[in-house]
Amino acid sequence: MVVPQPETGSILFDCRWQEAPATSGPHMQRLLHWREELYKLDLVGMDERGIGFGNLSCRVEGHEPFFISGTGTGCKKRLSPTDFTQVTAWNYEGNWLECRGPCRASSESLSHAAVYEGRPQARAVIHVHHPVMWQALYMRIPTTHPQAEAGKPEMAWAIGHLLDQGCEDGVFVMGGHQDGLMAFGVDLEEAGQRLVDCFHRLMD
Q: Which domain does 188 fall in, by range?
């Protein structure tokens, strides 16, 4: 049964969640691996207010559109397959999203969807938070419009516009989302390594 979900926590869209068992396979192992690597660098985790941040997604052949970490998982040190769900449909104008799995999809799911739409060759998207990286890269690399807020259709549209303009390095700043950055790639290795390389260039 599909259960419409009201706006709760940081989810700003109508999340239509169908509860289902967790999935397994190589894609899940890669999601768990990269989530752990990014957690070690504090690129995903929990802020001083106790609010989780950061999420990962990937496309899997035969299971489109994409799998993504669930809402509220940033506070966990380690995730399991039950912390991921499959996004199956979305609509920016209607501000809704459908997902199927053990948990509800991340509040940034529409942003991930916008990257997959704008870059059909992308098979992985990662969203992280880091204040130093955000401040250092703001407007120095592709940056979404500062009035487009996180978790709203406006952010998805801003990402689409940004990708239309370029973003060939696969990393961009979310201008209207304090500390937020996103990376994408042909797989999780490429997307994750882009963020790790960027982190070390700025922090080492």
A: 2-203
